[in-house]
Amino acid sequence: MTAPEVLLTEHPSDDIVVFRLNRPEVRNALNIEVRTRLAEGVTKCAADPKIRCLIITGSDKAFAAGADIDEMAEAGPVEVMARNVQQYWRTIMNCPKPIIAAIEGFALGGGMELALCADIIVAGESARLGFPEVKLGILAGGGGTQKLSRLVGRQRAMLLLMTGRLFNAGEALAMGVISEMAPSSQALPRALEIAREIAALPPIAVMQIKEVVNAGLNAPLETALMLERKALQLLFATRDQKEGMRAFLEKRQPKFEGK
User: Fold this and answer.
1) Do the domain assignments include residue 2?
2) Domains identified in the chain, total number
3) How many alpha carbons fall within 13 Å on the CB side of residue 125?
């Protein structure tokens, strides 16, 4: 019998792709196959000019309940280093196109680190999030410690990371960990609404926003402002800028081509 696909790819429209983690028997635990397939899929979409927005989601019960412990329980440090699982998340973070994570159920450990690779996170009201790695004798080593502390501040991050306690979507929204909270079972429909809204906008401007925001976060303010100015100037070379402003003046809907 053929093994089920661990990652499903859906196309709700020509310009939006949904990647659905599909290991329900282990709450979508992230093994190397899932990580590899997802990174490959994102890379392919990044090179496709028709694709304007990506969504990563799981099931109603779990976005991803962490890394696959079976793959790492007996590993040594050299083996962990050689596996270099961070490379897959780096591929997702470096995708120039907007990515939305739609979370229902559990997003824990590596699953939460995957969600934090996205530009926008929508979580269902009953979602449970957290970094429980400390309870396994390790820490969140796929970006969790650094991204969480940057989002919520040192003191709160220390509490969540050192206790491994879980938090709900409402708490995540209040802390700035997620972008939006949706009713339970509505995270993906809401993510699709946002994706359609973004896909209708000029894609070069959207990509420049993503690049400038991400680069500016790790740069001095004056450097970040310079990057912003250069991006703005560059956008005046696009057809979409001319179309957008002409449509505004002519009081009509613009038609953006990504050129």
Assistant:
1) no
2) 2
3) 5
